[in-house]
Amino acid sequence: MGDRRRLCTVWLGSETGILKGVDVSRKQALNFCNSSHLSREQEVRSLCWGDPAESELLVGSADGTVKTFSVEKGDFTDSRRCGNPAEGCFTGLAPLSGSALVTCGESGMLRVWREDSSQPAIELNAGKNVCRMRQSPVNQHSVATGGKENGLKIWDLERPEKPVFTAKNLRDDWLDLRQQHWVRDMAFIPNTDKVITCTGFHQIHIFDPLSPQRRPIMEAKYGEYPLTTLSLPASGNMVVVGNTHGQIAMLDLRKGLVCGCLKGLVGGVRGLQCHSSQPVVASCGLDRFLRIHSLEDRKLLHKVYLKSRLNCLLLPSRDLEDRGGATEGEGLSQELKVEEDEVWDTMEQVGEGDDKPKRKSTEGKEVPQKKSKKR
Amino acid sequence: MDFSEVPVSPDDKGRKKKKQKKNKKKTQQEEEDGAAQQTEQKPQRSEPAAASFPPTFSVSEIKNKQRRHLMFMKLKQEKRKQKMQLRKKRKKEREALGDKAPPKEVPKTIENQRVYDETTVDPDDEEVAFDEGTDEFSAYFNGLTNPKVLITTSDRPRGRTVKFCEQLATVIPNAHVYYRRGLALKRIIPQCVARDFTYLMVINEDRKVPNGLVLCHLPEGPTAHFKVSSVRLRKEMKRRGKDPTEHSPEVILNNFSTRLGHSIGRLLAALFPQNPHFVGRQVATFHNQRDFIFFRFHRYIFKNEKKVGIQELGPRFTLKLRSLQKGTFDSKFGEYEWVLKRHEMDSCRRKFQL
């Protein structure tokens, strides 16, 4: 049992309040909840890692509690109350150093909770109808919020009085009509200060807090349905967006052009995350499937049916599937693995070796490897 | 090759055959060519052409169209004859064996060759049971609400659509038909909720033919969009019974096996009151086959202990699911649970969604 738990690599939160762990290489799903206490009020709205070592999960449920789930023990170890359900569900959850916690609700109350205190240490109002709150991966104290009729705001939690950056509304359109804000999701672009958002009006915007321009410095459009989530792959210069009709597309950030769509989805996308080192993207949504696509050839690598509508998804920073086969039960895993997976495994090992700046050198390495395979 | 020397044969095939034979001969000897021609011409005249073809010959090689057609018809007839003979033979064998005859083979259909769908609902599954037990229809299935249906159409309905609405209203108990009056659906929905309607049904028409159905469960959704086809009104039916009575009918739902099928089945079941009046002896059937949902409305009678008679009351129509949306009708900003993606999904004919 313990081994199986450790093998779970993808974590998903469902609408029925069940936390699901999926072992990708074996296509096995495990439910973590006590089945006697199932209720829709515990619907998982957001997930994040509790510590940098990724041994603890923070699960934000719709009734306003944040539960701590220990991956090693496979059980919920702690639960604390962060805000009341009347203020709306969680739209974002993020850990801070020293086991503090940032939460944000739909009502726009952004709160920082220190350990062992029922009162929030910092409380600020980010405006109504917040759709998403995200933390910067580099600077833990920098968070972004945005929602319906509530433009992008970037906050510094050390100086919570005023937002560091507030987006300005778009220019009026050619009929002189006001354009609405509807930020559905955002992400901090690594190595820059820029923030990318996607909107309910199928736009993708990039904001640059350093420039004097408070309007987006780039706008791209995809499809004709509201975009729900976005995620930035490790390779850079790209963004993956998903919409309510189950369409996922990769867009180039330099020109804002679509450079590929991912197929196979049937229902709206709710959660989307790219792996931090591998070129894969995992998506989940109302169609109750977890799908993992490769970003290189845009093929569907894995598809797991999980029985409930899924709200959010969390990938680890380690590799998704090689550990499973190595540690135990090699025979079993090999049976389950499709040939494609094996091809994938070999590809990974190449990917591990290379670092981004040393591109040329790694390419040089790759070529002889390929040749050797052919022989 | 000089064809002018050869006496013109009645059919073009002679040439063809010669060519083929010649090709064969080329490999052997070229000297015998003249003699070979003579020998060839004999079988042409004496035998019917079809019999002397080499096995690799295909009818499409014939260049004369009339001739080709004739040959093709002959070929077909022959094949058919053979088939019938085989059948007769088999039948005789079966009769000879009597009871010991092997059981008849089940014909292959795309339904029984269906690709396994991993979302097929297992009745013992706790999680799915919980999911279904707490969904938007749970109030109806727990007997807390009674269905009340509003039927309306797209703007300015014409002949058949109006009649179709009226007839639907006689099938579904507690249904109210309203004229659309150019109102927006998103504005109608809050008013319906205030008046305790549990369903909003909108029939779309195109060139006087009903072709779409939006079925919106109130107050929380979901909303399904169906394509409607082959509508047959009561008047157009043969051997139909008298008009249906006010009794609430029994409902039969067939073949809704996947998770999506279950939600659609629940959506359709919740249209009718939960306790049917058995006195009325009326049945509404939603039969799903190859993702098409066939609706029929019957009256039955138990003639004696073994025999049952049924009588169709109409109307009949066929539905095909286009999309299932979470929440009440909002085609622009709503989140879709399932969308039909035509060229992506129907690449395999043996894969079904419902």
TrEMBL record, chain A:
It is found in: Nucleus, Nucleolus. SUPFAM superfamilies: WD40 repeat-like. The gene is wdr74. Keywords: Methylation, Nucleus, Phosphoprotein, Repeat, WD repeat. The keyword Transport does not apply. This is WD repeat-containing protein 74. Isoform 1 interacts (through WDR repeats) with NVL; the interaction is independent of RNA or pre-60S ribosome particles. Isoform 2 does not interact with NVL. Interacts with MTREX; the interaction dissociation in a late stage of rRNA synthesis is required for appropriate maturation of pre-60S particles and depends on the ATPase activity of NVL. Residues 323-375 are annotated as: Disordered. Its main location: nucleus. It comes from Echeneis naucrates. The keyword Repeat applies. Residues 353-369 have a biased composition (Basic and acidic residues). GO terms for cellular component: nucleolus; preribosome, large subunit precursor. GO terms for biological process: ribosomal large subunit biogenesis; RNA metabolic process.
From TrEMBL, chain B:
Keywords: Ribosome biogenesis, rRNA processing. This is Ribosome production factor 1. May be required for ribosome biogenesis. One of its GO terms (cellular component) is nucleolus. It holds the Pfam family Brix. The keyword Secreted does not apply. It comes from the Eukaryota. Residues 93-105 have a biased composition (Basic and acidic residues). Its main location: nucleus. Transmembrane segments: none annotated. Residues 147-330 form the Brix domain. GO terms for biological process: maturation of 5.8S rRNA; maturation of LSU-rRNA. Residues 15-26, 65-92 have a biased composition (Basic residues). SUPFAM superfamilies: Class II aaRS ABD-related. It comes from Echeneis naucrates (Live sharksucker). GO terms for molecular function: rRNA primary transcript binding. Residues 1-105 are annotated as: Disordered. It is found in: Nucleus, Nucleolus.
